[in-house]
Amino acid sequence: MTLVRSRPMAPLRSLAGQRVVVIGGSAGIGLETARLACVDGADVTLTGRDRDRLEAAAADVGAQSTAVFDASDADALSQFFHDLPTPIDHVMVTAGAPHYAPPLEMEPDEARSALADKLVLTLQVAQQSVGRVRSAGSLVCGGGTGGRRPRPGLAVFGAVTLALPALIANLALDLAPIRVNLIAPGFVDTPLSARLLGDDLEKRREELRTTLPIGRVVGPDDVASLAVHLMVNTALTGATYDIDGGQQLL
Fold this sequence. Notes:
Blueprint: E1 19-23, H1 28-39, E2 43-48, H2 51-61, E3 65-68, H3 74-83, E4 88-93, H4 108-129, E5 133-142, H5 155-175, E6 179-185, H6 191-197, H7 201-211, H8 220-232, E7 240-243
Helix pairs in contact: 1-2, 1-8, 3-4, 4-5
């Protein structure tokens, strides 16, 4: 009999003792990522624009510190990173809402903002990570899958959706050995989704429950699990990870 020696499984990695920064962490995916990181033993810093909501979120998940500022303000973002204790192990960026305005009705300034805000924020965080995020640490950014399929009214949103993976792949080379990855969710049941859909929220939930291959709606905790995995798995960089419950297959 020939014995086949199986390859040993890779050890489970942990965030214990590491510093995790979540930019846009007062609700939804950012908050759930912070919660999971805290449970795993990380020292978590949450940021957001609303002080009361941010402090409540930090108390809820057990974050060690908070910072109140608008991530779209380049000077405020720079000052935030300047004041952070170093080294930082991981940065997650969930700040920045998508723009859904009809493209043919956009004023030039609105169009510039819609096209640039998310990409510029991602680039600025990458710039601030140099010299502050440790070697083999990570930058995890948020994108989406909703703009990949051309549809009327989504020209600007679609352009940003398709540009983010290219930006992330190139930043992975520029920032190496810091790892850079993109999470691309479909519909996620978050407070932002509730605000965007309003009275149509429950209808959308039921539609997804009955049509998605997984038979349920994707929640922020699903995305948070992927975010933490991208932080701790040191073999992953430069890639886009879809998490939509099979929504793109429909």
